[in-house]
Amino acid sequence: MDAHEYSKGIKAAGRCKNIDLAIELFKEAENKGVKISSTYNALMAAFMYNGLADRCFSLFLDMKKDPTCTPNNVTYNIVISVFGRVMLIDHMEATFKEMRDLHLSPNISTYNYLIAGYISSWMWDDMEKVFQVLKSGPIEPNMKTYLLMIRGYAHCGNLEKMEEIYSLVRDHVNENEMSIIRVMICAYCKSSDADKVKKVKALLKLIPEKEYRPWLNVLLIKLYAQENMLEEMENAINEAFEHKTAITTSGIMKCIITAYFRCNAIENLENFIRQSVFAGWRICHSLFHCKLVMYGSHKNFREMQNVLDEMEDIDVNCNKRTLWIMYKAYSSTGQRSMILKILGKMFKHGYEIPDDAFPS
């Protein structure tokens, strides 16, 4: 094999995550005296592709010492990309400066790697500066640039610019870039955009059903819960149950509970809790406290007692807030015997007693 064939073999081995083979081919090329800059670049790229940043940079230093090979703009692009991926921005910028000092012309890949590095480090102003350099010429942004900028604007919450870039490459994104579609959905979910639900639904239609993502499913549950869209929320919840996606954070659970409370959907809440317990979701006191408040507001004391039994069945203890909710519910109807029982439990556990428990 000649030098270029060795380079192709090393690159292919790296893409297949076979680093040992890539190194073996590199050494073989070295022993045969056909090692050139592209051979170094291929192995550096293999290290980069497999997340071996230290070994990639070490090989770069070896290359700089090798009298037979000289780093070129491809070499520097790889190093810039590596530093950007591991968020060593000072090193990335120093490498770019070194490249310019050597009069190696940066190309569109160079600028894209710089933008990607700034996005990884959430350095939005620097990301924007590089993009403006490209827009002013002579190197023009390419599709990769636009996709990066959509991602960057989505992450920083600049929906206006995100939509502006999306409009330039809409057809390509809608057909080929589901990951970008999901990033945009995420940006809308976290925004205060008045039409965010409409825009999210439009984007969701572009994603094939087989491309299910648990994190996106949970994000949609939260969105619909915050918007009091009970039917959509429950559809998303059922989808999570079907895919065995378990919600383990109390924040999302409280969003769901609050939606049921605002919609006064006690039966729906009952059904949700049963399914959540069975599916291994995060079970918190708020689930049962919401039921207690809702039953209490309807003076349904029998069901309130059933809630306490449910809590006991799954080892959820009766805490201070539980007793306060019970106290308020019974106080509203003057059920003195039950009030005294609740107060007794408060005394027993050392909880604070309501100020109106014993009027003077």
From TrEMBL:
It comes from Trifolium subterraneum. GO terms for molecular function: mRNA binding. PANTHER family: EXPRESSED PROTEIN (PTHR47874), OS05G0407900 PROTEIN (PTHR47874:SF1). InterPro entries: PPR5-like, PPR_rpt, TPR-like_helical_dom_sf. This is Pentacotripeptide-repeat region of PRORP domain-containing protein. Keywords: Repeat. Belongs to the PPR family. P subfamily. The lineage of its organism: Eukaryota, Viridiplantae, Streptophyta, Embryophyta, Tracheophyta. It comes from the Eukaryota. Pfam families: PPR (PF01535), PPR_2 (PF13041). PPR repeats lie at residues 72-106, 107-141.
